[in-house]
Amino acid sequence: MSRQAWVLVVIASILALATLVGAVVLAVRVVRTRRMLTGLGTGGKVAFYGALIYTIFPVDVLPDPIYLDDMGVLAAALIYLTRLVHQRRAAGRQLPGQPDAPPDRGQVRRRVP
Q1: CB half-sphere exposure, 67, CA atoms < 13 A
Q2: Mean pLDDT, rounded, for 76-82
Q3: Which residues cross the membrane (predicted)?
Q4: 82: closest CA among 54, 48, 42, 55?
Q5: What confidence score (pLDDT) does residue 110 get?
């Protein structure tokens, strides 16, 4: 093979590795939101499991060495789940796996003897 062919192979390998790493990072972030699924309702569960199933199954829009479609599905699920979390927090509901909210500043704390 010529030198130009080797350069193209190396660049293609680096891009494939970068997209694989990106897909893994997005999958880890989506899996970390799993602890909040009980408070996000059916839509959150469908987005979570749908994104993971699409990423794991070999049937894709693009062939598996190209993870751009998987990254897009994972990113869309992560954005949707993040919006659901923000909506629930704005509504004042406590989500499972989240620390207790600090008391309002207007409330007076009493000491426990």
Answers
A1: 21
A2: 88
A3: 6-28, 40-59, 65-85
A4: 48
A5: 59
Q: pLDDT at position 113, please?
A: 58
| Cβ within 8 Å of residue 70, ≥6 positions away | 23, 54, 55, 60
Q: How far apart are CA 31 and CA 77, in angstroms?
A: 11
C-alpha separations of 50 from 32, 56, 80 in Å: 15, 10, 12
Q: Half-sphere exposure of residue 84, counting CA atoms within 13 Å on the CB side?
A: 22
Report which residue type is found at 67: Y
Give me the mean pLDDT over the 31-58 stretch: 81
What is the C-alpha to C-alpha distance for residues 35 and 30, in angstroms, rounded to an integer? Answer: 10
Residue 104 has pLDDT above 60, yes or no: no
Sign of CA dihedral 55, 57, 58, 62: negative
Which helix (H) or strand (E) segment holds residue 44: the answer is: helix 37-56
